[in-house]
Amino acid sequence: MALNISKDILYAGVEDRDIDLFEGQYPVPDGITYNSYIIRDEQTAVIDGVDKHFTYEWMENIEELLDGKSPDYIVVHHMEPDHSASLEVFLRLYPEAKIVASAQAVKMAQNLFNKDISSRAVIVKEGDTLCLGTHTLRFIGAPMVHWPEVLVSFEESEKILFSADAFGKFGTFTDREDWACEAARYYFGIVGKFGAQVQALLKKVAALPVETICPLHGPVLREEIADCVALYNTWSSYAAERNGVVIAYASVYGATKALAEELARILGRKGQDHIELFDLARDDVTEALEGAFRSSKLVLASPTINGDVFPAVKAYIDALAAHNYQKRFVAFAESGMWAPCSAKRMAELLGGCKELEFAQSSVKMLGCPDEAVSAQLDKLAEEIVSRN
Ligand SMILES: Cc1cc2nc3c(=O)[nH]c(=O)nc-3n(C[C@H](O)[C@H](O)[C@H](O)COP(=O)(O)O)c2cc1C
Ligand SMILES: [Fe+2]
Ligand SMILES: [Fe+2]
Predict the structure, then answer these.
(1) Ligand 1 centre from 347 Cα, in Å?
(2) In this structure, are residues 197 and 164 in contact, taking their beta carbons and an 8 Å threshold?
(3) Which of 104, 168, 184, 202 has a CB 3.0–4.6 Å from the CB of 217, allowing a cystine?
(4) Average pLDDT over residues 82-91
(5) Burial of 274 by CB count in 10 Å (0-12 exposed, 13-18 middle, 19+ buried)?
(6) Cα separations (Å) of 33 from 30, 50, 74, 174, 216?
(7) Which residues contact 365 (CB under 8 A, 6 or more apart)?
(8) DSSP code, position 192
């Protein structure tokens, strides 16, 4: 297969181009891959499985790559169904194979398959090794990157990090997306809430001479490792990657939309880079989430709806809070016909987020934009561009 890692380490994963929503909520227009690898040595190990819809394609890959030989081990770094739902068939077809996983992963397998697999398990934890001949996997704990049972492993002879969901990316191998864009949307959506745990993993990995990263989704990383690790360091510490503004709005009759677009124009005129506009009722909210985490500044603009914020804006703010949104500059714009109060509600909804700095200026609009609104927008834009 063209995607092989080395002479002895082969790619056995699959591309999923049929999926619409990853994890039931992230649109994946370019699909996603479920990566699996095989290490051929005196003993043979299959590294992780695939989504259940691709079980037989995966089994065929294994059969072909192993030339009919039975694998000795299946190493499971992460017992989430997108990787492990196919294990049940694997264990049935290869009754001699042992499953190498954390104690918690083995327990989870019982929940997933309603079957006790402990008699076939080799339980490993941080520091343990699995020697296959010339290849040795050393396991490293990575709890909550993305689930509690996660391990990653370092193959010592070829200096390969099998990184589980860390460094994963949406998309298949033929899409031309640059790595950071869809890797960021994946990171902030799936793993971003667990910045502290990602930082802990990065510290352990920094001590290793990693030359290749094999994640469970997306491309294998080599020359770009330093850049990707640097981005992961920025993202997981909740620092902004760039001086940029996300303007996230919703609108019933178009006035708030006009306001948001006008603010974007003024900001552009004043020299602000990286301005992104999102209509939260229509655009992919997971892109808007990614944008808010990558950029340093956020403007939330909402009409007042029955004394509250527009539902899609509320859902967005809830998602930000649920993903540990913090350390950012936030401004509000509200509209209403008789008693606008959505700005107050938006601030309340962000109340649990740490280290947010709120803009001094804000925008209040009654019904439609006028000169007074333009003046407020100009003042707000001035304050925004003066920030990094
Ligand atoms: C269902 C509904 C409920 C509303 N509730 C309020 C309200 O509680 N207070 C208020 O001042 N305006 C309320 N409005 C008026 C809108 O906030 C106002 O028309 C606003 O300018 C709409 O902005 P848009 O043109 O971006 O949709 C409501 C409008 C709708 C459609
Ligand atoms: Fe996962
Ligand atoms: Fe995954």
Answers:
(1) 18
(2) no
(3) 168
(4) 96
(5) middle
(6) 10, 9, 19, 11, 8
(7) 255, 256, 259, 333, 334, 335, 336, 340, 373
(8) G
Give the C-alpha separation, 298 to 272, whole Å: 13
Rounded-to-integer distance, Cα 301 and Cα 313, Å: 8
Contact between 333 and 260 (Cβ < 8 Å):
yes
Structure tokens at 179: 């790595």
Res 2 pLDDT > 90: no
* Structure confidence at residue 174 (pLDDT): 77
For the CA of 303, the closest atom of ligand 1 is 17
Q: What are phi and psi of 170, to 5 degrees?
A: -70, 160
Start-to-end CA span in the chain (Å)? 47
Q: Is the dihedral of CA 317, 321, 324, 325 positive or negative?
A: positive
Q: Specify burial of residue 138 (Cβ count, 10 A radius: 0-12, 13-18, 19+).
A: middle
CA distances from 230 to 131, 218, 226, 241 (A): 31, 18, 6, 10
Return the closest-CA partner of residue 44 out of 74, 17, 14: 74
DSSP for 336-348, please give it: ESS---HHHHHHH
Q: CA–CA distance from 109 to each of 54, 112, 164, 295 (Å)?
A: 18, 5, 17, 39
Atom index in ligand 1 nearest the CA of residue 254 equals 25
Instruction: Determine the residue of 249, 279, 337 to mutate for testing ligand 1's pocket, defined as the one with the most ligand atoms within 8 A of the Cβ atom.
Output: 337
Instruction: For ligand 1, say whether the CB of 304 is within 6 Å of any of its atoms.
Output: yes
Q: Which residues of 283-295 are buried (b: 16+ CB within 10 A; e: fewer)?
A: eebbbbbbbbbbb
Cβ neighbours of residue 183 closer than 8 Å, sequence gap 6 or more: 167, 168, 169, 170, 218, 228, 231
DSSP label of 191: I
Question: Which stretches within the chain are classed as H helix?
Answer: 55-65, 81-84, 87-93, 103-113, 179-186, 195-206, 225-236, 255-269, 285-294, 311-322, 342-349, 371-385
Q: How far is the CA of 204 from the centre of ligand 2 (A)?
A: 20
Considering every ligand atom, which ligand is closest to the CA of 340? 1
Atom number in ligand 1 closest to CA 307: 8
pLDDT digits (tens, 9 = 90+) for 141-194: 999 999 999 999 999 999 999 999 999 999 998 776 789 999 999 999 999 999
H or E, element range at 298 = strand 295-305
The pTM of this model reads 0.95
